[in-house]
Specification:
With 93 residues, this protein is mainly alpha-helical. It has one domain. It contains three helices and no strands. The radius of gyration is 33 Å and the shape is rod-shaped. The relative contact order is 0.05.
């Protein structure tokens, strides 16, 4: 086990000590909680790095244009216009 000296903001340290005391009712586990907090921070960083790598792989697929089912809208619009003009002609007669 390593013994280290760390310089922290007084307010941050006080809040951390208070949270440990509130959670455990004692400060005997303070060192263990510091270690656990560091481990969680490292794990979170690893997860975020992994997710960023996954997003990077997926970004290549974003450039692929999805094929829609059915005909393009322009074909549908042309057909609707043709039917409308046919209907107008039949009404005139």
């Amino acid at each position: 086990m390593a013994r280290v000296t760390v310089y922290l903001d007084d307010d941050v340290w006080s809040k951390f000590r208070a949270s440990v005391f509130e959670k455990h009712g004692s400060l005997k586990v303070l060192s263990k909680q510091v270690e656990l907090s560091l481990k969680h921070a490292l794990q979170e960083d690893e997860v975020l790095t992994y997710l960023a790598r996954l997003r990077g792989k997926r970004s290549l697929k974003k450039h692929v244009r999805l094929r829609l089912k059915g005909s393009p809208a322009e074909v549908d619009v042309r057909e609707m216009r043709r039917k409308a003009s046919t209907l107008k002609r039949t009404r005139r007669s």
